[in-house]
Amino acid sequence: MNTRELERVEVMGRVARGGLKLLDAAVMLQVSYRQVKRLWRRYREVGGKGLKHGNAGRPSNRGKPMKLRRRVLNLIKKKYSGSEEERFGPSLAAEHLAEEDGIVVDHETLRRWMLAEQLWNRQRKRKKHCKRRERKQHFGELVQLDGSFHDWLEDRGPRGCLMNMVDDATSHTQAHMGKEETIWAAANVLRRWIEKYGVPRALYTDWKNVYIRQATSAEQLRGEVPVTQFGRMCQKLNIRIIAASSPQAKGRVERNHGTHQDRLIKKMRRKAIDSYEWANEYLESEYLPAHNRRFARPPAKPENYHGRKPTAQELHQMFRLETERTISNDWVIRHNGLYLQLQPGNRHYGPTKSKALVCEWEDGTIQVYYRRQRIAFTELLEPKPQPTQTVPVPARVQPGRKAKKDHPWRRGYQNMKPWIPKRGSVGPLVGIPTSASP
Length: 438
What we know:
By secondary structure, this protein is an alpha+beta fold. The chain has four domains: about 5-50; about 65-115; about 145-310, 2-Layer Sandwich (Nucleotidyltransferase, domain 5), CATH 3.30.420; about 320-380, no CATH class. Helices cover about 35% and strands about 15% of the residues. It contains twelve helices and twelve strands. It has helices at about 5-15, 20-30, 35-45, 65-80, 90-100, 105-115, 185-195, 215-220, 230-235, 250-270, 275-295, 310-320, and strands at about 145-150, 160-165, 175-180, 200-205, 240-245, 320-325, 330-335, 340, 355-360, 365-370, 375, 375-380. Strands 3-2-1-4-5 form a five-stranded mixed sheet, with helices on both faces. A four-stranded antiparallel sheet has the order 6-9-10-11, with no helix packed on it. The protein has a three-stranded antiparallel sheet with strand order 7-8-12, with no helix packed on it. Helix 1 runs antiparallel to helix 2 and helix 2 crosses helix 3 (about 35-45). The radius of gyration is 42 Å and the shape is extended.
């Protein structure tokens, strides 16, 4: 008996002992008075067994024949069973039974049959155990880069983003604070790392458009590999970018964020730092040297995999934004809302409809190159749009008023002035009657 039937037996027993009336029993069992009278009559005649459902313990009227069940289970044991990797699940087995054997059985029915015969279990297949990745063995072999958005300055200043770089082998850290995780924010922290240690071999980042982007449909058709502005800077430095598929994959820099969010915030609070400039000065002078002395560790192997440090001029030419623009017929190119008039110099003709390379630095400096040669230019004022002239409305027909019935606009072509062809002109259209035509 189920819980509902046991409750009915208990309530009917109280009615039999005189502790309840049938009206109260109907309220407790949430049934009508007529229904509780039927239950009471059945209880008096048979007892508590009479309140049990009549079909309990009997085979279902809609159940499959036992002969079919045995046939299906024999087919599963023969064709669709085996080890955990080889055996078919109930859904897949039901599909193949319908396609190959012509036996249609619902997958839930088949699941119950397979569970009863121990051909299937409810335990799901566990995910493959992931082993923690070991550190790289050399300093500069892999550096993890990520940005952490946090209330670094608390109520004293704006909310910002801390760009954080951590060496995978030694946990050496370089950080720079700014407003957002932009191209220039990533370039600035990478440039400071290069100026200190040299060029790393690879960067471990996440899948943000700053580092890696998806190819457009046109690039897919041409077979081109999409490259961001930051990716182009890394290509010039021969740095490989590796995108992590999850935050856990670059867990070293993620855990480093947690350390900064505890220690750095408290240290800046004591010094009342309230701006990005002051925070970056404190990072370089005090916080990062002390942090690296405390948390950095020696690499497994002493060889340093950093490349040579480029000169300041080389870094200046590498860390810039490069965009191709089309040269118009009047030697003007458009770039970010600016109109740049190129100067021909010693050229006798202009490279119109060709591509010019526009280079832009963080301070807003712009240079234009054509075939690797720098071209002078002057900035033009943006042309002002011409004001639209409104056409005056004739006084005879004002806006919002309908024309009269005898207005020329309402005349049909039959009532219009006949067309009389001149000497040497083409005759009237066929089918249009005129006074000149017979």
